[in-house]
Design brief:
Blueprint: H1 2-24, E1 27-29, E2 54-58, E3 66-69, H2 71-76, E4 84-86, E5 90-94, E6 98-103, E7 115-120
Parallel strand pairs: 1-2
Antiparallel strand pairs: 2-5, 3-4, 3-6, 6-7
Length: 121
């Protein structure tokens, strides 16, 4: 029975730690009031992000999308095979530690600056 209590205690502590971490996560709307659009390229400048923070992309899904890409995809405005494509118009993406890259892969949009790079500590 003692092992059962110990396992339950560990589970409770793990749940409390996860809830605490989730409570600390910040939620950012990409582009602020303007949303995810052509002017959002410099939106992340000067902001501090942590792993677990959530980016909310709000946009017209008939005109844009959000693609999570690697550094090469960001630099070259290309969509690597297997890239996650979001297209709901109200997407929530949790940041991983390190560099996180996002583009719109509608023709010409990324090249026009519709891309962001976010570094999460």
């Amino acid at each position: 029975m003692a092992g059962g209590r110990g396992s339950a205690a560990v589970a409770v502590v793990a749940c409390v730690l996860l809830a605490h971490q989730a409570a600390e996560a910040a939620v950012f709307t990409v582009g602020d009031r303007g949303g995810w659009g052509m002017g959002a390229g410099s939106w992340a400048n000067g902001k501090k992000f942590k792993a677990g923070d959530v980016l909310v992309f709000k946009y017209d899904s008939s005109a844009h999308n959000v693609v999570a890409v690697n550094a090469a995809g960001y630099k070259g405005c290309t969509t690597p095979g297997g890239a996650r494509v979001y297209k709901s118009g109200s997407d929530r993406v949790t940041l991983a530690r390190g560099a996180n890259y996002f583009i719109c892969n509608f023709p010409g949009h990324c090249q026009a600056g519709m891309k962001i790079a976010v570094n999460a500590a």
